[in-house]
Amino acid sequence: MEEKYQLIVIGAGPGGYEAAIRAAQLGLKTALVEERELGGTCLNRGCIPTKTLLHSSNLYYETKNFDEIGLSIPGISYDFSKIYERKDRVVEKIRDGIAGLLKANKIDVFNARAVVESPGKVRLYFKETGEERYLEGKNLLLATGSKPYLPDDVKGVDLPGVMSSDEILNGNFRFKKLVIAGGGVIGCEFATIFSQFGISVEIVEAADRILPSLDRELSQSAAMNLKKKGVGIHTKARLEKLEECIKEGRRELKVSVSSGDTLKEFDAEAVLLCIGRRANTDHLFAEGLQPELDRGRIKTDERFMTDIPGIYAVGDVTAGIQLAHNASAQGITVAELIAQGKSTVDLNTIPSCVYMNPELAAVGLSEEEAKRTGYDVMSGKYPMSGNCKAVLSMDERSYIKVVADKNTGKLLGAQIICARATDMIGEFSLAIAKGLTVEEMHSAIRPHPTYEEGITEALADALTGAIHLMPRK
Question: Which of 55, 442, 448, 468 is catalytic?
Fold first, then answer.
């Protein structure tokens, strides 16, 4: 059997298209197969749409401070239709950019559903024409991502007005009262978006706090900032059932939530379900061929190889961290391993980002995790209330914290809640990846006035315990 491609990538999200581009750059003849739109969930139903909506939401929320900063716009309002139209334009522009990159790198792109027939053979189904076609390749990379999980044990999840994150991004709705089931990253970002538009939002979270995967102090600060925006937060609470009801002549949803022995009820015009995601493996493999799974996700080794030789998997379809930049890094790693036998990508320092207002970002170990791991810890924290940029921008509760090994001085982790936190966390990712000490990081000069000056102050606190509480003049 003659090999047509050296690498066939299934799935054109961040893990897939980045892998295809890197493989082509390294001289591999590469094919990319995508059933839906280029860019995958991140571009079309996740990262980019939500951040575009959040940009509009943040700007509208800032108008509350206009009187204090000397600005006035009489009768300011918003138009959801136009906000969502802009979201679509942004997505389309980026999608066109990806298509251009794939074309420039001479990658064969197939808009079709792929079924893996064997380790070196993929069957394509073209929906529009009904055509079937086979591709052959030495290596296959599965990057099919994930989709929202909808619980089958909660009555009423199929009622009108009950939505997944995919559906709420379509924009076909009008509501003033929203209940969000799930206080993770997705739930908290949507809570920020809609609460800043003046919509009543209630979060129901089964864990003892929102954002349970993040540092506890970050989570607590995020909760305080959401509550300031009027968001109700109900932790240790489980969604039990959803029912239609008529209130003041209008159709609404009655949301029943259990918390211990107590049953609470909320009225809502819409319910957003974001209580998890599941791997997108439906109909991906021919009968009799399936790699080993880990709780429904494809299991891989340290080289992202499945238990079927020649078949790799990256991103949300695997049991790893569900982050777009993690999927991209894994995809690039696989391409480099196939092409040159080694990769220079450091997969040990994956930053986590939450695009709330203010933003949250973390990388490496928290202080609690570092102590639990056995490190003798030194830490430093700087409240951004003393940062000039934060003061003049009228930012909300925020801080920067660093965690280091007291014996070696090497940085172990950092946690930030602050405007531009997601832009600044990369400095800490690089420092941890390169094994820099707190002293080495502190030696860099950061411009004034910037949020980054808070990094210098947090590092100084770790070294000396001294925090400059007053802004510089």
Answer: 448
